[in-house]
């Protein structure tokens, strides 16, 4: 394993340079043409067998070791977000309104650097390594499901993945067996009243007032319909009712998200939202439109593979703490891979200890400590080689 660790140490600056290049040239979900080409070119220079346009913009590269053994898949996502960057780093985004605000640039750089080092160890590798570079993680239906349909997991025995966590201390690895991340669903509601002059509200059906009542009523779903021992979130995240200052709006559009871990809770909330909308509109003699969009399934880690990573992580240079993490309400389409093959998804701390504030994911000032790229690569590489050795 020392050869792996030393090899990664030697190319740490290259991994950082890759991350910074990708950070400067972000592309939105399902639009990642140049990013996919960059990844493809890198793997082809290594001598990998490469499949492109896998399930869309996905890239899959293969490293066949010289010895027989299992097939291990490693996944990194590479899409960015529609956020205008507000950091002051010299490698800030060149694309206004688009930013790597979730660490996917770091995930990709980590996997590319690891691939380079593992290629130099081909004679010692016992099996096959599949490098899954996935597009469109940020935008349901996501890229994973179509990549799976296109055969990216064919022959794979186990899969490992990690997510850089900007608010988790550098050197910390967070693991959890079972449910780790929630199902991220979306709902759209349109309240349809009757507009009119702001001076004569009695002649209208005030869609804004109805919306205010609706938002309050929706909060009772979790507090009064969900078992307090279960976890659920219902959040209204966008409201639109553009009108002159003296005109009561005809309609108001709302968009929000639902986060759950259990399918029965998820289904109950979907139907309960409509019941609440219908009742609220009935009181005011208004009408409505309602759509519910199911996002990714809950990310459920397999126990044996999770315990395997948790046990080896303390032996990896740069890892200072390994702890069981609490479930999080953020969603992740790595869940689709785990429905097909055994594996685990873990968190790698990326918060610089000198920072006064670590901005959260999806924030315009989001950043990571780039030393975390090395930690992530070493844990993924160690998991891969150790698994192969134990299962050859």
Folded structure, characterized:
The protein is of the alpha/beta class and 392 residues long. The protein has two domains: 2-182 and 298-391, Aminopeptidase (3-Layer(aba) Sandwich); 183-293, Alpha-Beta Plaits (2-Layer Sandwich). It is 35% helix and 28% strand. It contains ten helices and 16 strands. An eight-stranded mixed β-sheet has the order 1-2-4-3-5-16-6-15. A four-stranded antiparallel β-sheet has the order 10-12-8-13, with helices on one face. Helix 1 runs antiparallel to helix 10. It is elongated and about 80 Å long. The protein starts with a helix and ends with a helix. The mean pLDDT is 97.
Proper CATH architecture of the largest domain: 3-Layer(aba) Sandwich
CATH level-four homologous superfamily name of the largest domain: Zn peptidases
* Biggest sheet statistics: 8 strands, mixed
What is the number of helical segments per DSSP (H or I, 4+ residues)?
10
Tally of strands: 16
* Class derived from helix and strand content: alpha/beta
For the record, give the distance between the C-alpha atoms at the N and C termini, rounded to a whole number. Answer: 16 Å
């Amino acid at each position: 394993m020392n050869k792996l660790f030393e090899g990664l140490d030697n190319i740490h600056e290259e991994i950082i340079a890759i991350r910074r290049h990708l950070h400067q040239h972000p592309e939105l979900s399902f639009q990642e043409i140049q990013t996919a080409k960059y990844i493809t070119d890198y793997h082809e220079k290594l001598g990998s067998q490469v499949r492109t346009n896998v399930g869309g913009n996905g890239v899959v590269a293969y490293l066949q070791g010289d010895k027989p053994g299992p097939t291990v898949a490693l996944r990194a996502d590479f899409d960015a977000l529609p956020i205008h960057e507000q950091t002051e780093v010299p490698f800030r985004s060149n694309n206004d309104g688009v930013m790597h605000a979730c660490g996917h640039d770091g995930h990709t750089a980590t996997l590319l650097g690891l691939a380079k080092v593992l290629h130099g160890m081909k004679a010692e590798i016992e099996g096959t390594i599949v490098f899954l570079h996935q597009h469109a993680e940020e935008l349901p239906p996501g890229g994973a499901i179509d990549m799976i349909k296109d055969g990216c997991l064919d022959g794979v025995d186990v899969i490992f993945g990690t997510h850089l966590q900007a608010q988790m201390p550098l050197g910390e690895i967070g693991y959890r067996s079972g449910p780790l991340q929630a199902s991220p669903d979306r709902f759209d509601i349109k309240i349809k009243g009757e507009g009119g002059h702001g001076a004569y509200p009695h002649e209208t059906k005030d869609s804004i007032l109805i919306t205010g009542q609706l938002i309050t009523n929706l909060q009772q779903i979790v507090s009064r319909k969900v078992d307090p021992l279960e976890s659920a979130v219902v959040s209204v995240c966008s409201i639109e009712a553009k009108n002159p200052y003296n005109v009561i709006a005809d309609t108001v559009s709302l968009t929000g998200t639902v986060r759950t871990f259990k399918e029965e809770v998820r289904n109950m909330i979907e139907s309960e939202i409509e019941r609440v909308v219908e009742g609220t509109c009935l009181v005011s003699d208004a009408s409505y439109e309602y759509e519910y969009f199911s996002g990714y399934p809950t990310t459920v880690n397999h126990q044996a593979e999770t315990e395997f990573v948790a046990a080896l992580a303390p032996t990896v240079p740069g890892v200072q703490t390994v702890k069981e993490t609490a479930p999080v309400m953020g969603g992740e389409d790595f869940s689709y891979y785990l429905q097909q093959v055994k594996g685990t998804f873990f968190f790698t701390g990326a918060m610089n200890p000198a920072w006064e504030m670590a901005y959260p994911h999806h924030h315009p000032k989001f950043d990571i400590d780039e030393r975390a790229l090395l930690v992530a690569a070493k844990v993924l590489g160690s998991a891969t080689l150790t698994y192969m050795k134990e299962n050859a």
